[in-house]
Specification:
alpha/beta, 2-enoyl-CoA Hydratase, Chain A, domain 1, 11 helices, 9 strands, 2 domains, 3-stranded mixed beta sheet, Lyase 2-enoyl-coa Hydratase, Chain  A, domain 2, 15% strand
Length: 262
Amino acid sequence: MPDYTAITFALSDHVAHITISRPEAANSLNRDLATDLMNVSLHCHEDPDIRAVVITGEGRLFCAGGDLKSFSAADDIASYIRETATFLHVAMSRFSRMDAPLIAAVNGAAAGAGMSIACASDLVLAGESARFTMAYTRAGLTPDGSSTYFLPRIVGLRRTLELTLTNRVLTAQEAADWGIVTRVVPDDELLAEAAALATELAQGPTGAFGATKRLIHSGWRESLETQMEHESVAIAHQASSPEGREGVAAFLEKRPPGFLSI
């Protein structure tokens, strides 16, 4: 496992806990953080012992977006941002395509890249004081981090344009009403709720979760018949897998399935 400089990582009971750890810089995204996110996403994707992932921010904020100080200090700002975005995008791709569900536990502000991470997560829990804003165009920049892929699919075209062009700030409850947030919880219960949800998911059929995620993402670009063919292939494969056999047997025998023992 690589040494991380901008995140902390812990694995417990098949749940990976990732904490963005740049509180002195509002957990903003620089090249080091993007590199760490890329490396930890690859680890979560490849380690079969990881069956659910929680990502949160250290201190008061989830992630305040790009670290504009590091951007402006770069000798070649375009190259620096391109490299940083590339590392971030590898992370978003791996998190999206891995079998283990990704839960974002959003504390405080999720702006720019922070909002992008939330949008790319499978489930999002937000503390009551959390706030969401795209923020990119306020600094004369354009969105990245997969937000132009996920956000329109979550909230629709008009609302996406409103969020990106006006940089409207959404409260946690507004973000839940718009479908960006799965559930709003009291601030002091956020991490416990996220951990409990991750523990529950970690006991489930991880392979089925991953295949389901990939089916849902692919459905946006396929015809009806092609997507149903993907569904046929996936469910047939899953039915013959150890997970599928255990799940069916448990249902017929009226007992809880033992996916963890497979």
